[in-house]
Amino acid sequence: MEGLGDLVVELILSKMAPTDAATFACVNRRFRVWASDDNLWRRFCSLDLDLKSPIDPLGSPCPSFKIAYKVWRESFGMYPWSLVKRTKRCWAVIETWLATNFPEVRNTLRKGASEREIKEAEEKLGVRLPPPTRLLYRFHDGQDLKFLETEDAAILGLIGGYWFYSQVANVYLLPLAQVVLDTKKFSERRFASQSKCVIVASSFYDRKLFFLNCCSGHLYVGTRNLFVDGDMIPCVPQLLVKCEGVEAHDAMLLWLEEHGRRLRDGVIGIREEWDLRIICQFPDTAPACSTAVTNGVQVRASAVFVPETSGPKDEIDDKYCFAYSIRMSLLSDGLILDGMYHSSCQLQSRHWIIRAGDAVVGDVKGEAVIGKDNEPERQIVRSGSGAIPS
């Protein structure tokens, strides 16, 4: 390769992996100069870590992209590099969406925990966290819970939630210190099924708790019988979970990856009501959201499963509870009725039939938002819940 021109060598290096480029630099002084070009390492940092500037894992600037890449590799040397990149991408998707759509939640994300801090938490808990979850905490140590002391407590959960009737769920990720406190408090109930579980996420108002099993890597959410007999149900299909090896991915990582995908793709988004903004778990796109337009009025309906009010093991018919959201809005073209154009309309009553398959499980009738006109680009939202028989 000594006789090759610079452009040819640059092309060859651009096809190499970072480890191969580092090996290439060891051949001789000339090769080391080629392989040390910072534009090359800028590319590696961008592809592997989505870095736009040379910074270390704590966000501090580095002299060059090459040094930045080296610092990242050394900092995460105890983990498979493919898992590090995957975890970094998971957080990048979420952070990018938050920065654009909900910076208030982005500002609650804590800086990453150190290996020492993670080990201290593990010692207090008496468990070892699965590698993917450890990496998630290396990038962000959950959310800063100081916001719980403010009036924004109900709305700044990273996972978000829903509300219907008097039920409010808005889930946030716990920092390690709170994981320890909440897990120890819950473990006093001595449910054998949770002996290797830690609480990783929680809702502020109505208690909705998420448990990570540190042995199996599975993620669970508590049912309405959680505080009675420790009943929980899986959040992620258990066959998808793989805790060991280069391609490891526990349910915690899969859960956050799916959450980021749903945010990025617009499956879920921000809902505004009563001057509040929340990451709302009611789907906004098909097939999980049904949409129909009649005479210029758009109606969208969607539902979510509510585990904290469900009892799959109960010996009753109404085991499964779902919350529904009905959104009605007048499209920008206005209402066309009997050939006449109307710029606004009024919702006076409501009647919807709730079905599970072919069975009618709910029949809701009542007054609506009397005295309020629905103007173009504004929407009326009605929420409620219904139980589905087993």
TrEMBL record:
Keywords: Ubl conjugation pathway. Residues 291-390 form the ApaG domain. It comes from the Eukaryota. Transmembrane segments: none annotated. Pathway: Protein modification; protein ubiquitination. SUPFAM superfamilies: ApaG-like, F-box domain, SMI1/KNR4-like. PANTHER family: F-BOX PROTEIN SKIP16 (PTHR47463). This is F-box protein SKIP16. It comes from Acorus calamus (Sweet flag). The gene is SKIP16.
